[in-house]
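Quick log. Single chain, no ligands specified.
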Amino acid sequence: MSSSVTRKAAWSDEPPRPADAPAEPRTPSVTPPDGPAAPPRRRRALLVRCVLAALSGVLLYLSFPPRPLWWLAPLALALLAGCLYGRRPRAGFGLGTLAGLGYLLPLLVWTGEEVGPVPWLALTFLEALFYGLTGLGIALVSRLRAWPVFAAAVWVAGEALRARAPFGGFPWGKLAFGQADGVFTPLAALGGTPLLSFGVALCGFGLYEALRIARRHPGRTTAALTALTVAAPIGAALAARPLVSDAAEDSTVVAAVIQGNVPRLGLDFNSQRRAVLDNHVKRTIQLAEDVKAGKAPKPDFVVWPENSSDLDPYAEPDAHAVIDEAVKAIGVPVAIGAVVAPETGPLRNTMILWDPVAGPTATYDKRKIQPFGERIPMRSFVRLFSSDVDRVRRDFGPGKDPGVFDMAGSGVGMVTCFEAAFDDAVRSTVRDGAQVIAVPSNNATFGRTQMTYQQLAMDRVRAVEHSRTVLVPVTSGVSAVIRPDGRIVSQTKMFTADALVAEIPLRSGRTPATVLGPLPEYALLLLAASGFGVLVARRIRARRAV
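-> predicted structure:
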């Protein structure tokens, strides 16, 4: 917006008026005939904006898996932009919060699958506040020239804040994670998930701005220039497509993932820990028999899911014995997901590299521990709302270092379940030498909800981001083999015992996203901050001019 726009336009609840617009006639001091009707009209307009903001959140939810409707995301953000454009900051916060509720209430309903609605609603309302802050920021920067660019950067800033606070952050539902099937996906290889989110947001906000200007000033070149904010991210994504490669750089290997299944759904599956372990042992031995019979190719290595052994094999001789039996039967290194219970200190969610000759060797302790799932912050306070916190009797503790196992000469990086949502957890594993990424997971707690498909889409984006095959072994499904270009080449059904065996490419090259690390996100945060800086400077100048 030009500096010639009045201060009233800069901070009022009305959209900014272009500098070349004709001056508005002075309003007579007498009350207009429709004065008493003005407040009802404003209330109706506010109600409409509230409904549309919530609807934009619902559309954003519908763009996420298992539905292949990724193209709804830019439309949802265009609708949200129409609600936020030119609004006051407090209105932006309220409308943004409503959009967050419309989005997160259905997206995160799986969090209450076994523990009731209180944790689900508490998490949703907390996370929706971050969307409120994002809406506030977008409302402010909508008063700037090229505001869609600043607004998209503000969206990334909101996601960055969610990924870090509180309790270590909760990045689930990041805009990028709904784009596994979309045209924007190659942006992940260029600048990671922050750039992918930025591209989708820029397209949505630019679409609204293009329509707004075209409606008010048909034929103006400004509309065509604004349309570039829609075309630019799509063009950048198409230009980045060569970065998305499926070719082997370091030969190929045959990998297997095991899905042993669980005895029953829900939280109580842990009460039959030995049955879960036996299921994975049995399915591995069956795979070994299929290999001997020529029904399946012999794998070079095998990956079990997270929590496939909730019995500590270091402390439980029986668990050690049956795992060793299965590994010896298949005759190749196996990564085992186990709960390790030291005599003192927190539990460890550990992946154990088990060799058929040497037994258990290297380990990896999960670094991103899920709050209110694997550990309970503020336990005594949270107990006031739900006694289910006491199901987690002993908290898990985080590991410190990335885990890359040498499995038959292949560098297999471990990214355990919830960690796949965090940029730094995946990136550090690839930088540490992972030629393949394994995401062992345990989704049995969440039954047949959409959580499994949301996580699978996240893993597909990670495959493109770092140009790595991603192996996804899950206790209850859906397990999958994902190629470096994000394609799922094989997957299991839910709650069935199965094994997937596939020849996969080994890759050691690094995408720009892997090399640049957090720099694209930092650059976008700086862009958002510069937008706010311009607004502050403008207000200071306006005050001095009085």
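Residues 40-244+519-545 form one domain.
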